[in-house]
Structures are given as structure tokens and as C-alpha cells.
């Protein structure tokens, strides 16, 4: 079973987060080429307003923030790998709340 992990990260933490998920087994592409550390990265602008009880890594409570972030997509082979990758991502990521998605992939 294959999964796609997608997450958003501020640019200064991009390398650390990719290193963490790859060490957990993410980014191995299935097939004869034995590709590793595979991902797609695109830069964009993230937006958030920290609430009254937040402990923001970036920004100020109550103030709308816009931050340059990377969107990273990678493949994970098996549920155990995607779970380990998410756990590693949460440890490496600087934000209080990590924005990520996990999608089950189909093979047609």
C-alpha cells in the first residue's frame, strides 16, 4: 500500500524536516531504479493568526502572519512508514501545529 505525505514548513526548517522524514523511510520510490529521498517541493505563502492560547514559533498572538513556506510531497510505502514519517515530521517541525495531509494512493 502506498501513501502520499504532504506538509507545509517554513523555509529555514525545510532541510531538517526532509532529513527527518527520509530517515524514517519516506521518499523511497517503488520500482527497479531504487530511488530514495524523492519528493516534490514548491514555495508559497502560508497564512495564520495565532489565537489567545497559542505559543507561536513565528508571529504574535492575534496578528495575521504571512510566511514563506514550502509544500513538500513524498511517497511512503506502507502504513508503518507513513506513521513513522509523520512522527518524525512532528518532532523536526518548528510549529506548534504541523499542517500535513496523508493520502492513500491507488494503482490503476
UniProtKB/TrEMBL annotation:
Keywords per UniProt: Signal
Signal peptide: 1-16
Gene3D superfamilies: 3.30.70.120
Superkingdom of this protein's organism: Eukaryota
Protein name per UniProt: ATP phosphoribosyltransferase
Organism placement in taxonomy: Eukaryota, Fungi, Dikarya, Ascomycota, Pezizomycotina
Amino acid at each position: 500500500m502506498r501513501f502520499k505525505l504532504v506538509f507545509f514548513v517554513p523555509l529555514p526548517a525545510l532541510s531538517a524536516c526532509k532529513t527527518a522524514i527520509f530517515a524514517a523511510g519516506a521518499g523511497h520510490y517503488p520500482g527497479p531504479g531504487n530511488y530514495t529521498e524523492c519528493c516534490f517541493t514548491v514555495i508559497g505563502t502560508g497564512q495564520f493568526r495565532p489565537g489567545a492560547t497559542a505559543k507561536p514559533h513565528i508571529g504574535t498572538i492575534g496578528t495575521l502572519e504571512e510566511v514563506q513556506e514550502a509544500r513538500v510531497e513524498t511517497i511512503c510505502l506502507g502504513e508503518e512508514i507513513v506513521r513513522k514519517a509523520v512522527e518524525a515530521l512532528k518532532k523536526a517541525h518548528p510549529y506548534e501545529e504541523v499542517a500535513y495531509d496523508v493520502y492513500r494512493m491507488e494503482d490503476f
